[in-house]
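Batch 3, record 17
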Amino acid sequence: MGTILIKQAQIMTMNAENAVFYGDVLIDGDRIKQLGSELRIPAERVIEAKGKVLLPGFVQTHIHLCQTLFRGRADDLELLDWLKQRIWPLEAAHDEESVYYSAMLGIGELIRSGTTTILDMETVHHTESAFRAIAETGLRAISGKVMMDHGEEVPAALRERTDTSIQQSVDLLEKWNGYANGRIQYAFSPRFVISCTERLLKEVRDLSAHYDVKVHTHAAENRGEIAHVAQERGMRNVVYLDHIGLASPRLILAHCVWLNEEEKQIIRRRGVKVSHCPGSNLKLASGIAQVPELLGMHVHVGLGADGAPCNNNLDMFQEMRLSAFLQKVTHGPTMMNAKTVLRMATLGGAEVLGLQKEIGSIEPGKKADLILLDLNDFHAYPSYEADPFSRVVYSATRGDVDTVMIDGRIVMEQKELKTIDRSTVLRESDRAIKRLLSKL
Amino acid sequence: MGTILIKQAQIMTMNAENAVFYGDVLIDGDRIKQLGSELRIPAERVIEAKGKVLLPGFVQTHIHLCQTLFRGRADDLELLDWLKQRIWPLEAAHDEESVYYSAMLGIGELIRSGTTTILDMETVHHTESAFRAIAETGLRAISGKVMMDHGEEVPAALRERTDTSIQQSVDLLEKWNGYANGRIQYAFSPRFVISCTERLLKEVRDLSAHYDVKVHTHAAENRGEIAHVAQERGMRNVVYLDHIGLASPRLILAHCVWLNEEEKQIIRRRGVKVSHCPGSNLKLASGIAQVPELLGMHVHVGLGADGAPCNNNLDMFQEMRLSAFLQKVTHGPTMMNAKTVLRMATLGGAEVLGLQKEIGSIEPGKKADLILLDLNDFHAYPSYEADPFSRVVYSATRGDVDTVMIDGRIVMEQKELKTIDRSTVLRESDRAIKRLLSKL
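Prediction for the assembled complex:
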């Protein structure tokens, strides 16, 4: 990788001042070297971006790549039914190849719609396949195998022994954490309290401190889940996580729809991070998270599409629109303006993942994770003196993403993917889901 | 226009049985002549549609083409502020050319995202420009000039004398109703009770009966609006419309977010039609309409994106997703399944417009208003034994629309518009909004 010069873009830096200007960006290797209104610097490669918008790549803080194959197989169900009737049996049927193509299908969708970094939760087995897909495609990801050593309703093929779950997690961590120039990291991923023993959660607490890696889990998504935790562990979901010492700045909680005051204070006080998944929360009828209140408490909140079967897209543009619209209807029309939402989708997500020094904004020294949007179409016009934040959050769609760069590498150029063969992935994803469905 | 044969599509008929099959459709002139699994009939033109999905074109039951130019100029405001501070001054600044390009911009977006029929409300002046754009582009539309003869806060340039408003409406009706093979129709369009005298509304009641045309207005969108009507007319919004005799099967009410029991019963009993605009209702913080209840009462409900400045798209895929997701989070995950939503977006919309015998489903004898979707991409895969309704409602996006036919005429083919020159419309829309903003 040498130098790349992106010329004459409208650059939305997402820096501390939310600066937007027309100019050039010089990339050297995997990092942004220089910004300027007109850089007269020779570069090995020049990308003419006149009329296009340059943004930091989107950061999604809650994704299940292993579920992409299940898109459309679990519609119109509530969380616990959705898990027990559809998702767990399908996850249990997964094989090495199906996990790989599930990840490839999801990554193809993610890159095409401008997401360059994800926090991902895999299934119990075959997690290597997902890491392989991430490594090959060039996506930036923190991922881990799901941990499930408890719960009578968990299918036998997914129910783990505690020691095995921990050992396999550590083995994966040691192999993949920091892989590919640090582009890939490991996170311990206990599914949720319902499916984990206290012993497992406490081991995860100690191991995540030892290795200094994230813990990625679900919490306070659904009222049934909360009642189940309360009955079994004798306290509210987040209170329990704090009680056993898991609440720390390394902990990332997906959903957090139903938090009481005490839980919000725990999250704030312990520096716990929150991943807001508005599409999933609506489709599974989970509820509407109190995002403005969390942001007001200076809690770091990112956005995620969750898995394909509960969304049914992995599209940050959809999640941005929803995250704004839902808070307006509950808190009034000035709540969650476009700027707030776009920060959540970029630097906010980076902060959730602890990567704010590396990604999330266009600034010298940061990783070159960049997307170019072509908004020269009816749905994003007029362009005259248009507010760029409104345009990206309220008008743009996935089809507007033109070029995507991750870690300085161009993974999509003029809507053509460079690291994924679409026809192979579409064909093999059909073959894989057919095989899994035949096993049920 | 001669015969066109569409071959080997997955045909979602949206007929009474919601039949879906793989086969061919023969079009003769402006109408569908025949469906079959393999039609061996010579045609002047053959469209190979293998691997694509054929649907009736979407029907949007509430649009303001004249506002498309204002996209992004009125974000993060509540309805009455939004109108008084931004939309009315901009509408007052409109000229003949700006109304034309506003309509062209909106129609370009609508056709590209699969909408073939709209119910449209224009502004006070220059409505001919919008009809000209509709006529030229080939869109199917019911439209009318807005009527505003009351209200102190209405800008002088929009405030009409009652007689003038009525005379201009009738003149437009006599020229445009039934134009272009019946593709264009006229609807009386009093803006809402707040901006109309009782005399005007009563004249509209009589004239709409005399000419047998629709009456298109806003009602029960916002709590401030309802309080205003109650204070001025002494009763609830829909009760008042019924009280003055306007509630009939010809009346189409946009929004209906805040209906009490009496108003719902009036709508049901009088055969009034409802246009649900979930995107607009969220962005303007209006609320969430009780659509499942209205559908349960056999009220005809259609979907509409409303105007570009309150959405900020005119995209039926966005409205479909939202209409499903919002009811799930309020009524549970099985509410508003994909089939229900897709009916609302097609035949349901046609019923709202009284066009159910002509459009809204793929059946012999109906108008050839058809769209082909190409879902061969990551975000709509796997395709193996996929539920087509889920795929279209929960996964598809505007970029998947490949070809659009209205009244037997191909207006977009392989994503290329045939009746609109994009670069001219984009350039002129920027010039027009610049001119309007300079007048404010």
